Description:
Number of domains: 1
Shape: elongated
Radius of gyration: 16 Å
Helix content: over 70%
Structural class: mainly alpha
Order of helices and strands: HHHHHH
Strand content: under 5%
Number of strands: 0
Largest sheet: none
Number of helices: 6
Amino acid sequence: xxxxxxxxxxxxxxxxxxxxxxxxxxxxxxxxxxxxxxxxxxxxxxxxxxxxxxxxxxxxxxxxxxxxxxxxxxxxxxxxxxxxxxxxxxxxxxxxxxxxxxxxxxxxxxxxxxxxxxxxxxxxxxxxxxxxxxxxxxxx
Length: 140
Protein backbone atom coordinates (compact mmCIF):
# COMPACT_ATOMS: atom_id res chain seq x y z
CA UNK A 1 0.00 0.00 0.00
CA UNK A 2 1.14 3.51 -0.75
CA UNK A 3 2.82 4.94 2.41
CA UNK A 4 0.85 8.19 2.22
CA UNK A 5 -2.46 6.34 2.04
CA UNK A 6 -1.32 4.05 4.84
CA UNK A 7 -0.49 7.06 7.04
CA UNK A 8 -3.85 8.71 6.27
CA UNK A 9 -5.56 5.44 7.19
CA UNK A 10 -3.50 5.32 10.40
CA UNK A 11 -4.71 8.76 11.49
CA UNK A 12 -8.35 8.15 10.55
CA UNK A 13 -8.40 4.72 12.20
CA UNK A 14 -6.69 6.06 15.33
CA UNK A 15 -9.15 8.94 15.67
CA UNK A 16 -12.21 6.77 15.00
CA UNK A 17 -11.21 3.92 17.32
CA UNK A 18 -10.10 6.32 20.04
CA UNK A 19 -13.42 8.15 19.82
CA UNK A 20 -15.41 4.92 19.90
CA UNK A 21 -13.57 3.73 23.02
CA UNK A 22 -14.03 7.15 24.65
CA UNK A 23 -17.76 7.33 23.94
CA UNK A 24 -18.32 3.70 24.87
CA UNK A 25 -16.82 4.26 28.30
CA UNK A 26 -18.72 7.52 28.78
CA UNK A 27 -22.00 5.77 27.88
CA UNK A 28 -21.19 2.90 30.24
CA UNK A 29 -20.21 5.17 33.12
CA UNK A 30 -23.66 6.09 34.41
CA UNK A 31 -24.71 2.45 34.66
CA UNK A 32 -21.60 1.59 36.70
CA UNK A 33 -21.45 4.75 38.84
CA UNK A 34 -24.87 6.44 38.81
CA UNK A 35 -24.83 10.24 38.59
CA UNK A 36 -26.19 12.32 41.46
CA UNK A 37 -29.98 12.41 41.72
CA UNK A 38 -31.64 14.74 39.25
CA UNK A 39 -28.65 15.03 36.90
CA UNK A 40 -29.23 14.33 33.21
CA UNK A 41 -25.82 13.29 31.90
CA UNK A 42 -27.03 13.54 28.30
CA UNK A 43 -27.75 17.27 28.68
CA UNK A 44 -24.81 19.69 28.78
CA UNK A 45 -26.78 22.37 30.66
CA UNK A 46 -27.82 19.85 33.32
CA UNK A 47 -24.20 18.79 33.73
CA UNK A 48 -22.98 22.38 34.00
CA UNK A 49 -25.56 23.36 36.58
CA UNK A 50 -25.06 20.26 38.73
CA UNK A 51 -21.28 19.78 38.54
CA UNK A 52 -21.03 20.79 42.22
CA UNK A 53 -22.97 17.60 43.11
CA UNK A 54 -20.37 15.30 41.58
CA UNK A 55 -18.02 13.39 43.88
CA UNK A 56 -14.53 12.15 42.97
CA UNK A 57 -15.98 8.73 42.05
CA UNK A 58 -17.98 10.36 39.25
CA UNK A 59 -14.75 11.41 37.53
CA UNK A 60 -13.28 7.89 37.29
CA UNK A 61 -14.98 6.96 34.04
CA UNK A 62 -14.40 10.30 32.31
CA UNK A 63 -10.69 9.97 33.07
CA UNK A 64 -10.65 6.34 31.92
CA UNK A 65 -12.54 7.28 28.76
CA UNK A 66 -10.06 10.01 27.91
CA UNK A 67 -6.99 7.92 28.76
CA UNK A 68 -8.08 4.61 27.23
CA UNK A 69 -9.57 6.28 24.16
CA UNK A 70 -6.28 8.05 23.54
CA UNK A 71 -4.30 4.87 24.23
CA UNK A 72 -6.40 2.82 21.79
CA UNK A 73 -6.21 5.50 19.12
CA UNK A 74 -2.47 6.02 19.50
CA UNK A 75 -1.76 2.29 19.47
CA UNK A 76 -3.86 1.84 16.34
CA UNK A 77 -2.26 4.75 14.50
CA UNK A 78 1.25 3.59 15.39
CA UNK A 79 0.52 0.02 14.29
CA UNK A 80 -0.83 1.12 10.92
CA UNK A 81 1.55 4.00 10.11
CA UNK A 82 4.16 3.36 7.43
CA UNK A 83 6.91 5.10 9.38
CA UNK A 84 7.54 7.57 12.19
CA UNK A 85 5.15 5.52 14.30
CA UNK A 86 5.78 7.39 17.55
CA UNK A 87 5.03 10.70 15.84
CA UNK A 88 1.68 9.36 14.73
CA UNK A 89 0.91 8.03 18.21
CA UNK A 90 1.83 11.35 19.81
CA UNK A 91 -0.15 13.18 17.14
CA UNK A 92 -3.26 11.25 18.16
CA UNK A 93 -2.47 12.12 21.79
CA UNK A 94 -2.15 15.80 20.86
CA UNK A 95 -5.43 15.73 18.93
CA UNK A 96 -7.30 14.28 21.91
CA UNK A 97 -5.51 16.76 24.23
CA UNK A 98 -6.94 19.62 22.17
CA UNK A 99 -10.36 18.01 22.62
CA UNK A 100 -9.73 17.75 26.36
CA UNK A 101 -8.79 21.42 26.55
CA UNK A 102 -11.94 22.37 24.65
CA UNK A 103 -13.96 20.20 27.04
CA UNK A 104 -12.55 22.10 30.04
CA UNK A 105 -13.97 25.33 28.59
CA UNK A 106 -17.33 23.79 27.69
CA UNK A 107 -17.86 21.82 30.89
CA UNK A 108 -16.05 23.20 33.94
CA UNK A 109 -14.74 20.55 36.32
CA UNK A 110 -12.81 20.60 39.61
CA UNK A 111 -9.25 21.86 39.25
CA UNK A 112 -7.76 18.57 40.47
CA UNK A 113 -9.58 16.67 37.72
CA UNK A 114 -8.67 19.19 35.03
CA UNK A 115 -4.97 18.91 35.91
CA UNK A 116 -5.05 15.11 36.20
CA UNK A 117 -6.94 14.75 32.94
CA UNK A 118 -4.90 17.17 30.85
CA UNK A 119 -1.54 16.04 32.23
CA UNK A 120 -2.16 12.29 32.54
CA UNK A 121 -4.70 11.19 29.96
CA UNK A 122 -3.45 12.38 26.60
CA UNK A 123 0.26 12.75 25.83
CA UNK A 124 1.40 10.00 28.24
CA UNK A 125 -1.20 7.62 26.81
CA UNK A 126 -0.20 8.59 23.28
CA UNK A 127 3.41 7.77 24.13
CA UNK A 128 2.43 4.50 25.81
CA UNK A 129 0.28 3.50 22.83
CA UNK A 130 3.22 4.16 20.54
CA UNK A 131 5.55 2.10 22.72
CA UNK A 132 3.10 -0.79 22.93
CA UNK A 133 2.81 -0.71 19.15
CA UNK A 134 6.56 -1.14 18.90
CA UNK A 135 7.49 2.44 18.03
CA UNK A 136 10.76 3.71 19.39
CA UNK A 137 11.02 7.07 21.10
CA UNK A 138 13.92 7.94 18.79
CA UNK A 139 13.37 8.34 15.05
CA UNK A 140 14.97 5.60 12.92
